[in-house]
């Protein structure tokens, strides 16, 4: 439904977007993930029409929309800080967009009231219609912001870090709320986030932006299991990465030679990656099986994250190596600080780039 080809945007001679090609499906939840400064907000603003690209084409519903004003695009935008009107009630905030939009404003009060009522029910704000927006919680403000956009019946909604202003607890509850609301209204959501956990949890599709380009676009589980470059693997924050060189089925790294399985990915940069949750911690004297890779590390500390425990080991080259054990698989074990352990994984579980 939305296609960008070779879209470029430059600020003061510096590229903020450098040849973006992407294609978003109808009726789906898309997460846009990227490190700070990678161009996420710029990309959203270009799609919304708040910024004009220097080059490239934006097509929406089959039509080129480069020259169409933001109001005429049929694309909604939800801001991180919600941007609600403090002097208007919940209901008035939601009605505002319909009554005052430049394109096809709805002025029949009955139609406005009916649509606002439906929207209030859809986002779960029934009972709070008359409240001032200064008298509702952060999560409720988020719902008002969303309802105010959805009431105008956009074909697509852009959300710029929509959960960024909420505390951690509320953020995880609003993740499933947002997904459910989207499914009910059938509109494509493009959700910008700097959090890999949020992107993978929410998006049917994930777009990874790195250094002003699309580094990878795919299903969330494909990106998680098969990041297509060391940069994407690093950014996902769930892989240990080793630099080095691949030759004759062995990856030579600072941690020693690492045997390689059948799987390798072509990449300009060579690297060896093993996911945190694919590693077993065994006594130092443990011997690796024929299909396994074994290195040694010194235990530093463990950190509980609720469903998992993450343990940190220092390798001989000083690098920190992380292991994640899900508590549903086994009870947590206590490791001795400053003691040496074997860190073992299956050869086939490693991703080798080169
Ligand atoms: N109005 C502007 N004028 C000049 N440079 C800008 C402008 N807006 C963004 N940039 C630059 O463009 C690049 C991309 O910025 P952008 O805000 O899109 O990144 P982001 O991925 O959204 O970052 P963050 O996650 O920190 O919000 C950055 O180098 C930024 O400094």
Automatic annotation (TrEMBL):
Gene3D superfamilies: P-loop containing nucleotide triphosphate hydrolases. GO terms for molecular function: ATP binding. Keywords: ATP-binding, Nucleotide-binding, Plasmid, Transport. Pfam families: ABC_tran, TOBE_2. Residues 2-236 form the ABC transporter domain. Belongs to the ABC transporter superfamily. This is ABC transporter ATP-binding protein. It comes from Shinella oryzae.
